[in-house]
Amino acid sequence: METFDCIYTRRSIRKYQKTDVEFDKVTKILEAASKAPSAGNLQAYRFIILQDRDVINQLPDMCSDQFWITEAPIVIVVCEDIERIEAHYGLRGQRLYAIQDCAAATQNIMLAAHDLGLSTCWIGSFEEDYVADLCGVPTTARVQALITLGYAAQEPDPKSEEPLDVLVYFNKYGARVANMNMVTHEFSKEIRKYTKRLDAKTEKGLKESKEKATSTLQKFKDAINRAKKKKI
């Protein structure tokens, strides 16, 4: 799958087939995760593969009652070795770089899975201490994300996305440019916008012309009626 196709078509899936995931695919996915950028290239992210049904079935109680999680054949727990990254970067490493490292790895996991025909969902709502205890995570590490993994049993709904002219600023926060589509060379979008405006003007013009013609015809009829009355 081409990179942009993979990015554009990936969706979060919350319903899975009762089909085991081939472990060679899991290996490829985790290899992709290990290629994610990390602070100082420390690669302090760590991954726990959950396949034990008894363990997975306990997760919804720790994840805001998201019971669909139990349908996933695999759940990947993404952790950061806090002790390792803090030793190099102190408190900022613990509070920021650890989160960034794991977020990058999580994105790689989801894209690699999609490329291999698998589906995922990134879970951020969980009770960290309980999940850490369930998975035997030591106090020197911290759980950053959970990812369900399996073959999709649903067609995802179309994804709504904000246009770039809402998301992008230039040189400082809040600074937008007019005609963003021209800046990004998406001329077809700019042409469609112009065509819509033109169509709207044309429709408005036709409506006004029709109203004017109707008004003129009514005046003509009224004049004829007045003339008839005078003649009588």
Please tell me about this protein's structure:
- With 232 residues, the chain is of the alpha+beta class.
- It has two domains: 3-150, NADH Oxidase, CATH 3.40.109; 180-231.
- Helix content is 52%, strand content 12%.
- The chain is built from nine helices and four strands.
- Strands 1-2-4-3 form a four-stranded antiparallel β-sheet, with helices on both faces.
- Helix 2 crosses helix 5.
- The longest helix has 45 residues, at 187-231.
- The radius of gyration is 30 Å and the shape is elongated.
- The model has no long low-confidence stretch (mean pLDDT 90).
Number of helices: 9
The residue-averaged pLDDT reads: 90
At CATH level 3, the topology of the largest domain is NADH Oxidase
| SSE order, one letter for each helix or strand | HHEHHEHEHEHHH
Q: Which percent band covers the strand fraction?
A: 5-15%
Counting DSSP E segments of at least 2 residues, the number of strands comes to: 4
Total domains: 2
Write down the Rg.
30 Å
Fourth CATH level, the homologous superfamily of the largest domain: NADH Oxidase
- What is the CA–CA distance across the termini? 86 Å
Strand order of the largest sheet: 1-2-4-3
Q: Supply the CATH architecture of the largest domain.
A: 3-Layer(aba) Sandwich
Helix content: 40-55%
Provide the CATH top-level class of the largest domain: Alpha Beta
Provide the structure class. alpha+beta
Shape: elongated
- Biggest sheet character: 4 strands, antiparallel
User: Which regions are unreliable across 5 or more consecutive residues at pLDDT < 50?
Assistant: none
